[in-house]
């Protein structure tokens, strides 16, 4: 029997927020001019991350009610239940312990909240992953022909692809010890072109194939794996020699063993790690191969630093809570169905698709944990990409379209690209980020537009004719997430920030963020069609 989960709409703070939302809302232009606005900023110590949420469409009274809602919904006790390893994934009766993969977020000597057994499993598999990655990178672990590996191909999809691929794109270019010449490639799509295009330039005698699948049954991944192994065969790497080229990462090691993947090259994780939360587990092996074990451990430590902040910071200063509750206000009280993620560092090119899976597969739910239908909106439609490119594409709709799209901007303070004019590039990028954040918030009304046109030398009568086309309503809620640098540690903290944001929103809505039954129907139908 599912324990009853109260609808958030019955909570006093929700009702208070509904009343606050029903009152006339000042324009963000006016809100920004109000005193005390600077209080809507917060930083997480030890993570290098701070959030400027001064451009969210609420004032201190609304913010206070939002934090009260988080308290009334039991965010803190639900958080503690997750860290204690309780089976909070109720539909599958599983704990949710990706946090355990990052290490213990408490003082040295204190036991991990999830217990020593899990701690031991995690440490020993992490050590295996790190050792393996370093041996391949150093050329100590040889291919079947005795050569060092030059290329790694990770075959996986969804959570077995998006995280490591995103992080490798973000970090490999600037990890100074990653100049080993080892190239890490990713194939997810089972369209033949994707795997052909990746393999055709590679030498099978120096290529390591990783097949990453939590279940080791995913049809797309198995189809690509079959072709890649056939490619090894065709390249003369056959029979037992092939073992040196094969790696499996899975929570179902019996299945990978049955498919011929050698035990010594099989890395495991557990059913209490959801696929979309698994970049910290053995599934991070391609990332460790791309950046080295030292940087990979820094990445984990960044996640752990955000865990420590999430567990200890007061709700009003707690970064995951800030992102989550801003989102709840926008989604449930301002009725904005979507959320844009605009990343300004180009190394974060795959961050939005990664968060898209994490958020939409987690909180795309329509019933609460007790099976009762949700009577409020749940997870938003999350979309986005690189902010600067977006400015020259879809930002027009944000400024003058008929949708109100809240935005989360992500920027970095420092730039270390080895280019003589890198500082100038960085200045241009951050200038644009700041300008967009402000322009979307304040807009430009018709009177100010008319003045601007006249100042440009336009005839006032002519200017008045097209003043409406040249005006901007603004009032678009947005926050800026600033990283002091885009290092492995900071990226780890950023990912954990989003994981906990998703957690907090699920806690508010009373839904289970850790199952994904919605993806099953299409799979089942494909199977039924296949079987005629
Ligand atoms: O890692 P696998 O078992 O191959 O699963 C890969 C992906 O496929 C599924 O459809 C799920 O929706 C994802 O959550 C998962 O990450």
TrEMBL record:
Catalytic activity from the UniProt record: alpha-D-glucose 6-phosphate = beta-D-fructose 6-phosphate
KW Cytoplasm (keyword) present: yes
Lineage: superkingdom: Bacteria
Transmembrane residue ranges: none
Keywords recorded for this protein, A-Z: Cytoplasm, Gluconeogenesis, Glycolysis, Isomerase
Cellular localisation: Cytoplasm
GO MF annotations, alphabetized: isomerase activity
Coiled-coil regions listed: none
Positions of the catalytic residues: 361 (proton donor), 392, 523
Pfam families (UniProt xref): PGI
EC number: 5.3.1.9
Pathway: Carbohydrate degradation; glycolysis; D-glyceraldehyde 3-phosphate and glycerone phosphate from D-glucose: step 2/4; Carbohydrate biosynthesis; gluconeogenesis
Protein function: Catalyzes the reversible isomerization of glucose-6-phosphate to fructose-6-phosphate.
Family as reported in the entry's similarity comment: Belongs to the GPI family.
UniProt xrefs under PANTHER family: GLUCOSE-6-PHOSPHATE ISOMERASE
Name of the protein in question: Glucose-6-phosphate isomerase
Species annotation: Hydrogenophaga electricum
Origin organism lineage: Bacteria, Pseudomonadati, Pseudomonadota, Betaproteobacteria, Burkholderiales
């Amino acid at each position: 029997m599912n324990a009853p989960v109260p609808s958030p709409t019955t909570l006093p703070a929700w009702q208070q927020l509904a009343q606050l939302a029903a009152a006339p809302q000042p324009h963000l232009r006016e809100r920004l001019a109000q005193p005390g606005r600077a209080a809507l900023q917060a930083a997480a110590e030890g993570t290098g991350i701070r959030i400027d949420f001064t451009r969210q469409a609420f004032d201190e009274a609304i913010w206070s009610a939002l934090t009260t809602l988080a308290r009334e919904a039991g965010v803190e006790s639900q958080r503690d239940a997750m860290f204690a390893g309780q089976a909070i994934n109720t539909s599958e009766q599983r704990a949710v312990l990706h946090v355990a993969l990052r290490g213990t977020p408490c003082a040295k000597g204190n036991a991990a909240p999830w217990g020593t057994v899990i701690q031991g499993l995690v440490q020993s598999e992490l050590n295996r992953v790190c050792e393996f990655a370093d041996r391949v990178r150093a050329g100590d672990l040889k291919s079947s022909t005795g050569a060092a590996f030059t290329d790694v191909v990770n075959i996986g999809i969804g959570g077995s692809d998006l995280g490591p691929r995103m992080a490798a794109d973000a970090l490999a270019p600037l990890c100074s010890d990653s100049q080993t010449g080892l190239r890490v490639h990713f194939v997810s799509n089972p369209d033949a072109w994707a795997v052909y295009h990746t393999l055709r330039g590679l030498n099978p005698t120096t290529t390591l194939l990783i097949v990453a699948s939590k279940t080791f049954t995913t049809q797309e991944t198995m189809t690509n794996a079959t072709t890649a192994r056939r490619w090894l065969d065709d390249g003369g790497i056959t029979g037992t020699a092939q073992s040196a080229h094969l790696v499996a990462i899975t929570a179902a090691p019996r299945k990978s063993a049955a498919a011929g993947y050698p035990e010594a090259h099989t890395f495991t994780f557990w059913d209490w790690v959801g696929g979309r939360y698994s970049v910290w587990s053995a599934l991070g092996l391609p990332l460790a191969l791309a950046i080295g074990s030292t940087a990979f451990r820094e990445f984990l430590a960044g996640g752990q630093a955000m865990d420590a902040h999430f567990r200890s910071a007061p709700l009003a200063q707690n970064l995951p809570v800030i992102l989550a509750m801003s989102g709840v206000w926008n989604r449930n009280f301002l009725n904005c169905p979507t959320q844009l993620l605009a990343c300004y560092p180009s190394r974060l090119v795959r961050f939005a698709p990664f968060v898209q899976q994490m958020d939409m597969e987690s909180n795309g739910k329509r019933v609460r944990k007790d099976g009762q239908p949700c009577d409020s909106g749940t997870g938003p439609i999350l979309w986005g990409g690189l902010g600067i490119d977006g400015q020259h594409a879809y930002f027009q709709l944000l400024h003058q379209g008929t949708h109100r799209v809240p935005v989360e901007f992500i920027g970095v303070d420092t730039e270390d690209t080895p280019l003589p004019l890198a500082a100038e590039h960085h200045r241009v990028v951050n200038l644009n980020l700041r300008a967009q954040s402000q322009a979307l918030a304040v807009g430009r009304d018709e009177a100010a537009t008319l003045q601007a046109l006249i100042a440009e030398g336009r005839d006032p009568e002519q200017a008045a004719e097209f003043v409406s086309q040249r005006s901007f309503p603004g009032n678009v809620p947005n926050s800026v997430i600033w990283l002091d640098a885009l290092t492995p540690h900071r990226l780890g903290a950023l990912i954990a920030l989003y994981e906990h944001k998703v957690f907090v929103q699920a806690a508010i809505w009373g839904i289970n963020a850790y199952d994904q039954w919605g993806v099953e129907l299409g799979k089942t139908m494909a199977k039924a069609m296949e079987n005629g």
